[in-house]
């Protein structure tokens, strides 16, 4: 299919997949055999094969029935991973039941697929998720779930409209240290929360020439571009051929992503929102500055500093340093680190030992602690909300996008209305809520 035709098409095509050997869970409802959930993977790169696939296959009752990617080598590797994993569990020692697809619309048209895990480059997240919702699939979506605030509102509304289960695929709510920090803050062990200081890792820009080159034989580059502008292929824009370990170049290009601001921000800012009790709303003011990397391809922010003010009086400062969060209240502080180090040998530090030793009372504010994979699959089975649903995901990633808009407005102090999700006094800032013209043709209306 030519790219122009493909971009104009927002419907589903008929699947050419073989008939399923086991009927999907929804055919049986509550009587589904072992509560089985048939899952398909769209995008089978580093994140999918390194984490998402193995961890989902470890959840009881999950069956990965299909993998899809525009890179035939990658999808072949994913198929081998799935089938070798299931072969080890089979009494015969053999398994050959995982189908492969190049076009994700074939996956969405399959009647045997209950849910999809979307692990593609960021510019594809909203279009694919919207089409999956319309096709009646539950969706686990890699973070950051959106690239623009308006797209996120349409996505959250569509989840509700279609009655589907949705989860932001972020593991931070499932990490005990962040879960513990949130419960301590929400239960008042720091007193009244006053300030939050959060930082993402710094972006790395290794030396790599921006050289146009022939498209690798295994890559459908036209499909990879999808809703992004049509530009000549270069490895620096996409990912290293036949490599599942190196960090893909698209992470550092604003054509496809927004760098560490949203990549790690989607994890860390969510925890800030959760602890602040603002996970379903947002700030009332934002101000940000930053500097873009001076490179014709890798042009994301190489540094930024953002300040937010919330209606409850809390101020939040977001910058680049080490992945960590510090909560400051009128009775003490608590700092949570993503990793231990010589400087920080423990995940949690506090102004007083009693804070860390505190026991959350039975009638206190408590949250479930479970794997994000289990959380999603259980929600698919029971139809309950996930721990990080579409509305929470929209509000979290909006804070990151607000910082980006603040940078574009060159440090101006911007009032923000979280109810309307608009800047009430800055028309220019509002022009950044939507993506570039034409993106809506990929299912974001």
What features would you highlight for this structure?
alpha/beta; Dihydrodipicolinate Reductase, domain 2; Rossmann fold; six-stranded parallel beta sheet; disordered N terminus; 445 residues; eight-stranded mixed beta sheet; Gfo/Idh/MocA-like_OxRdtase_N
Largest sheet: 8 strands, mixed
Low-confidence stretches: 1-33
State the domain count.
Answer: 2
- Rounded to an integer, what's the Rg over CA atoms? 22 Å
Q: Using the alpha-carbon principal axes, give the shape.
A: globular
Could you tell me how far the N terminus lies from the C terminus, measured between alpha carbons in angstroms? 23 Å
Widest sheet: strand ordering: 13-12-11-7-10-9-8-14
Indicate the structural class: alpha/beta
Number of helices: 15
Total beta-strand segments: 14
What do we call the CATH homologous superfamily of the largest domain? Dihydrodipicolinate Reductase, domain 2
């Amino acid at each position: 299919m030519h790219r122009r035709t493909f971009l104009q098409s927002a419907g589903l095509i008929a699947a050419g997949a073989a008939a399923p050997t086991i009927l999907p869970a929804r055919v049986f409802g509550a009587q589904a055999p072992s509560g089985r959930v048939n899952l398909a993977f769209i995008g089978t790169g580093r994140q999918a094969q390194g984490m998402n696939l193995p961890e989902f296959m470890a959840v009881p009752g999950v069956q990965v029935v299909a993998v899809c990617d525009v890179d035939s080598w990658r999808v072949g590797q994913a198929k081998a991973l799935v089938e070798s994993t299931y072969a080890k569990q089979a009494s015969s020692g053999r398994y050959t039941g995982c189908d492969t697809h190049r076009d994700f619309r074939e996956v969405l048209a399959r009647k045997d697929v209950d849910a999809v895990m979307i692990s593609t480059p960021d510019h594809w997240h909203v279009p694919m998720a919207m089409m999956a919702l319309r096709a009646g699939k539950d969706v686990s979506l890699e973070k950051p779930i959106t690239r623009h605030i308006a797209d996120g509102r349409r996505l959250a509304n569509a989840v509700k409209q279609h009655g589907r289960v949705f989860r932001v695929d972020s593991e931070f709510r499932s990490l005990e240290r962040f879960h513990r920090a949130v419960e301590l803050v929400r239960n008042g062990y720091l007193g009244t929360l006053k300030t939050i200081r959060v930082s993402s890792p710094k972006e790395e820009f290794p030396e790599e020439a921006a050289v146009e080159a022939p498209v690798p034989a295994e890559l459908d580059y036209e499909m990879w571009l999808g809703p992004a502008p049509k530009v000549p292929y270069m490895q620096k824009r996409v990912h290293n051929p036949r490599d599942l370990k190196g960090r893909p170049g698209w992470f550092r290009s604003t054509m496809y992503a927004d760098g560490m601001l949203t990549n790690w921000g989607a994890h860390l800012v969510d925890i800030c929102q959760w602890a602040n009790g603002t996970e379903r709303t947002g700030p009332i003011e934002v101000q940000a500055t930053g500097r873009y990397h001076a490179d014709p391809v890798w042009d994301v922010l190489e540094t930024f500093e953002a300040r937010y003010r919330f209606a409850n009086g809390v101020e939040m400062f977001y910058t680049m340093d080490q992945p960590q969060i510090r909560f400051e209240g009128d009775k003490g502080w608590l700092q949570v680190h993503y990793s231990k180090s010589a400087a920080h040998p423990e995940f949690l530090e506090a102004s007083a030992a009693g804070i860390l030793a505190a026991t959350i009372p039975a009638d206190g504010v408590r949250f479930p602690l479970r794997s994000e994979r289990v959380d999603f699959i259980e929600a698919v089975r029971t139809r309950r909300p996930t721990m990080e649903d579409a509305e929470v995901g929209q509000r979290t990633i909006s804070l990151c996008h607000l910082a980006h808009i603040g940078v574009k407005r060159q440090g101006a102090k911007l009032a923000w209305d979280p109810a309307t999700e608009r800047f009430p006094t800055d028309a220019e800032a509002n022009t950044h809520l939507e993506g570039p013209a034409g993106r809506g043709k990929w299912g974001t209306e």
